[in-house]
Amino acid sequence: MEQQIYKGKLIQFHWLKVAKKEELTKNTFSLEFEIPENLRDNFKFEAGQYVSVKFQSHGEEVVNDYSMTSAPYEGKICLGIKVNSPEGATSQLFQNYNEGDQLLVGEPAGRFTLGSKPSEFRTIVAFAGGIGITPVLSHFKNILHNEPRTRLFLFFGNKSSEELIFKDQLDHLARTCGDRLQIFYFFSQEKTVDQFFYGRLDEKKLNLIINQILHLDDTDEESTIWDAVDEVLICGKGEMIKTLANACYHHGIPKKNIHFELFEEYNDDIYPVEKEFPLIENIEVEFTMLGKKYATILPDNRDKVLQQLLIQKFPVPYSCKSGICGSCECSLEEGEVELLENEYLTEKEEGQGHILACMSIVKSKKIKLNFDLS
After folding, report:
1. Is residue 118 part of a domain?
2. Within 13 Å, how many C-alpha atoms sit on residue 26's CB side?
3. Has residue 191 been placed in a domain?
4. 27-67: per-residue pLDDT in tens?
């Protein structure tokens, strides 16, 4: 086992053997890891989570996060991975590591999860873009296995059919669970026989989906399928998440029931900031990170805490800047902030004084933060 501070959190790594490696498309592949009996408890996970993988790339140590496509009941760790460029770190992972090799893999993490409700009748809708299908696949396998009364709808967007990954697994699920799962494929750069399935998954496409697919509900003649939606899962690029999350919200889905996972750095708010705050200038900020104390002055509170610290070149941990990943989680030890929308902190954590620096507006002349939570 090895420990390392990474993105503001202490992660425990373990050596795992690559049991299977498979090229899926020209720029995606999958890895399956063998979990030894003595590490079974360390690698228990929930559907929708990810693991960090530490490996060598061009002579340097790299740590990347990859979502699992496996479901907890399968008893294995399977990852879906996209190679973004021939020179990138992930390309090195594909080229240099093969079946039988050992890699350092972090224990499962992430909060793109859903509570299991096997005795309830639920309707869950998911939107995925490209490699964003990975945690959604984990969720769907898990729900179909554990929730006999839940029905699922997947809207999966790709540039073309050549780039569509895990189609065999998805089609198998649809064939075996056709009464509870429907899958619809969309292509943004490939003409389709039915024009409906051509184009990006966005607000306009969602309106069509609601009106033409999620309309008549066989289980309730007085409402539509969309009216019955309990949870929405969205995974992909930031702009897609922002567009669809807001569209779902404006179509009546409460924000607490819209869950999203980001697959890239994204600097915008997912939901627009609807509050106005009194202007405060020359704000004193003290914070602790990796045992070291820092102090600075923020010119005002027009921008959020994380963004201002990054402008001043402080090495604070972050990934998304959108309240999704939790990398910038810290405790507020003094002062007052307004925590805007976030997809990460629990009510208990907020009650303990935890905040996300990327979603916090300062409301006092001085604040004191501690990023060393582990």
Report:
1. no
2. 6
3. yes
4. 999 999 999 999 999 999 999 999 999 999 988 999 899 99
Range of the domain at 84: 2-106
Residue 323: which pLDDT band, with cuts at 50, 70 and 90?
confident
129 strand-pairing partners: 157
Distance CA 213, CA 197 (A): 12
Co-location of 236 and 345 in the same domain: no
**Number of folded domains that form the chain:** 3
Q: In this structure, are 306 and 256 located in the same domain?
A: no
Q: Is residue 212 classed as helix, strand or coil in its secondary structure? A: helix
For 330-356, how does the pLDDT look when each residue is reduced to its tens digit (9 = 90+)? 999 999 999 987 778 988 999 999 999
Angle (deg, nearest 10), helices 203-212 and 238-250: 50
Q: What is the pLDDT of residue 374?
A: 66
Closest Cα to residue 300, out of 288, 284, 313? 284
CA 247 vs. chain centroid, Å, equals: 18
- Other beta carbons within 10 angstroms of residue 370's beta carbon come to 17
Residues 311 and 200 grouped into a single domain: no
Q: Hey, which bits of 188-280 come out as E strands? A: 231-236, 258-262
> Residue 107 carries which DSSP code?
P
